[in-house]
Amino acid sequence: KQQKAMEQRLAQLEESCRQKEAERVDLELRLTEVKEKLKKSLTGGMLGASVESKPTIK
């Protein structure tokens, strides 16, 4: 009985871990996108125009 509870808890933790990893990947992709936009604006000299535009959030 105790082993069954431990296996169930392990399954819950693994699922939680998968969700957190997916969230981390999403945040990393969004961060990369922001960095790219910032780099483009800095090299293009259009920082003011870029800052005023609204960011797209999924």
From TrEMBL:
The lineage of its organism: Eukaryota, Metazoa, Chordata, Craniata, Vertebrata. Keywords: Cell projection, Coiled coil, Cytoplasm, Repeat. The keyword Coiled coil applies. The keyword Coiled coil applies. One of its GO terms (cellular component) is cytoplasm. This is Uncharacterized protein. Residues 3-37 form a coiled coil. It is found in: Cell projection; Cytoplasm. It comes from Cirrhinus mrigala (Mrigala). It comes from the Eukaryota.
